[in-house]
Amino acid sequence: MLVKEKIVIGISGVTNAGKTSLSLRLQKALPNCKVIHQDDFFKPPEEVVVDSNGFYQYDVITALNMDAMMNVVNAWIKDPSGFKELPSESHITSQPLQYDPDAPHILLIEGFLMYTYRPLLNVFDLRYLLTVPFDEAKRRRSTRVYCPEDPPGYFEGHVWPMYLEHKEEIRSLGVDIEPYLDGTNPPDELFRLAYDDISAKVRRLSSGV
Ligand SMILES: Nc1ncnc2c1ncn2[C@@H]1O[C@H](COP(=O)(O)OP(=O)(O)OP(=O)(O)O)[C@@H](O)[C@H]1O
Ligand SMILES: NC(=O)c1ccc[n+]([C@@H]2O[C@H](CO)[C@@H](O)[C@H]2O)c1
What is the overall mean pLDDT for the chain? Predict the structure, then answer.
């Protein structure tokens, strides 16, 4: 008998910290686990504000369709084993890769801007933050192609300052965060650190001891 049958876990952190890679690995290893990616809910460019430098303001909450994201989250909360009420399952991984009828359902939500958005903040049972320093985040980001592409100076002029503001807001709100995960760990080590911490806490939350 489970004390808690549904557990929602946040994997947040700066751009390119490794959130997507880590979440997909965790999904393969955790029982009854699905993943939602916040990046799937960006508004189209024509709905994103452009500042006086010509920078699209992508790294703020208004660039995301959070109502649509909350609809998917709430659909999982209502019925973690199916999404019959949604027209499409495209914004959530379709099926868990590990089944265990005696284990709770787990939802991993990964995204860069989640712990200052109150409707989502209150849904999490566990909140993780992946950190990487400025130089590493910038280096990794320079290997990626976003749509629209990052213009010169975008990382220093928009992405990183917005991240710092977000981190400060998390601190000032007093949001509870699990021990930070160091995203500069090699992928296997990072996975092991996260998996061990999450599985111990899921066991504790679901059994009530
Ligand atoms: N532990 C790691 N060590 C080194 N590089 C990593 C690690 N994890 C991911 N990467 C690399 O960093 C880049 C970003 O990874 P990933 O997409 O998982 O991060 P993210 O935090 O989801 O990024 P974004 O917020 O931009 O979507 C990729 O090029 C990936 O190969
Ligand atoms: N997915 C998108 O529409 C998009 C477009 C431009 C930039 N981004 C970046 O994604 C990161 C979060 O993963 C943010 O740092 C955005 O700048 C996303």
Answer: 93
- 3 state SS for 179-191: CCEECCCCHHHHH
3-state secondary structure the chain: CCCCCEEEEEEEECCCCCHHHHHHHHHHHCCCEEEEEHHHHECCHHHCCECCCCCECCCCHHHECHHHHHHHHHHHHHCCCCCCCCCCCCCCCCCCCCCCCCCCEEEEEECCCCCCCHHHHCCCCEEEEEECCHHHHHHHHHCCCCCCCCCCCHHHHHHHHHHHHHHHHHHHHCCCCCCCEECCCCHHHHHHHHHHHHHHHHHHHHHCC
Q: Report CA(37)–ligand 2 centroid distance (Å).
A: 12
Beta bridge partners of 35: 108
The ipTM is 0.98
Counting from 1 in the atom list of ligand 2, the atom nearest the Cα of 43 is 3
For ligand 2, atom 3: residue with the closest CA: 42
With beta carbons less than 8 A apart as the criterion, state whether 126 and 181 touch.
no
Which pTM was predicted?
A: 0.95
pLDDT digits (tens, 9 = 90+) for 46-68: 999 999 989 999 999 999 999 99
Rounded-to-integer distance, Cα 70 and Cα 123, Å: 10
